[in-house]
Amino acid sequence: MKNYLISTLTLLVLFLQVGCTTEDLRIDNPDVTEENEIQDFIWQGMNLFYLWQESVPNLADDRFDTQSDYINFLNSKSKPEDFFDNLIYNPGVVDKWSWIVDDYIKQDQAFQGISLDNGVSFGLVNIVSNDVIGYVRYIRPNSDASNKNIKRGDIFTHVDGTKLNLSNYASLLFDQNNLTYILDLAKMEDNVIIPTGVSVQLTKNEYTENPVFITKTIDQNGHRIGYLMYNWFTRTFDDELNAAFLQFKNEGITDLVVDLRYNPGGFVSSAIAVSGMITGQFKGEIFSKQQWNSKWQEEIQNSDPGSLVDKFTDKLSNGHSINSLKLNKVHFIVTGRSASASELVISGLKPYVDVSLVGTRTVGKYVASTTLYDSDNFSKSGVNPNHTYAIQPIIYKSVNKLDESAIDGFDPQILIAEDIGNLGVLGDTDEPLLNAAIADITGVVAKIFDYKKVDYKTIGGSDMRSRVKNNMFVDNIEVR
Is the CATH number of domain 212-450+466-473 3.40.190.10? Predict the structure, then answer.
């Protein structure tokens, strides 16, 4: 078994020299069968790439004395999901983000913004006892909901006539076999939820979400303020994002507010791109640095240290030139839904420009993952046709030029929480969070809003079952 491990490390070095797409990384083990080939793929991928590999005894390079020990270990869990979970370091505490999927085709589509969706982005809260209510964050354009009598700020209490509670909300709202359901709407008066008698039937269809949700310029007190609501870092819409910044550039904005309140992350390449759009004067400077597990870090440092650094660029991943504003200050609207690539942008810009945050503390997601497929080199090329499992392990920690990260999240300079009783209209100058940002820019005192103080516990929302939208990704395989 020791020779097996030496071969693995040798291939690791070879991989660093020539690139994953041209050389095998996997060890061809003759004792692996169709019954345990997925477990073999999982172990090899995690042993090589997992950030916390050295902290997991079952992933140690010297874990197995014999070939038989290794095969017995593969056979210890019949379900790939259980086998994968057994390799996670301090799950839910340290590693909250690695996952496994049994259908990488659907996951690949989700990365492109394609999913089954009725168009309602909603939040869920527990107010009293076991009762759960939902509230509409926004409606996606050209979706089923966009043609229905439902809007931001609406509250719903029942699904298909059944009152939502802590025991049933998941089955009522997230049943993959139930693509159509009816929401019973309500309103809030004096902290009391009152039914409106309005019901809305919604149907999930295949939908592609453009994350560039709102682009507008606001003239206020001598300032031309660009406002961008951006909901997901996906390369598929980098050109649309770039077009928004061209609009800002042509309209001569003096200030910028980027609304990331519902943006849970996405691709690192898009985070670097948007940072270059905001600035542009730092091309070639350090945007972020990667910190891998110890064996990767040492090998990359020795063979290609430059690949550990992500730099500001003037090009999109597709080669198109970036439209840059060359700003020295930017405001971000953030909440407890702003994570990962959103935090990477904030972290990467902080050493260079004045970054002002409005809202509430961000999540604190500081690590990146990639998709590993069951193939000789863990890429999608030559993937094993016997199954559609893939894993999405955390592979590196990201820090900025000053070695800082978002491990604890970012606290805003201007603390203001969304009020589910008074969400306002997104993009409107009277929307409370945008109003606070504009007030900070212009020096005018922010409006005082009549907050409907509601005591509640946040449960999650419409994307809580989508791991794809709660992470930071590097392209497969952009692990050099």
Answer: no
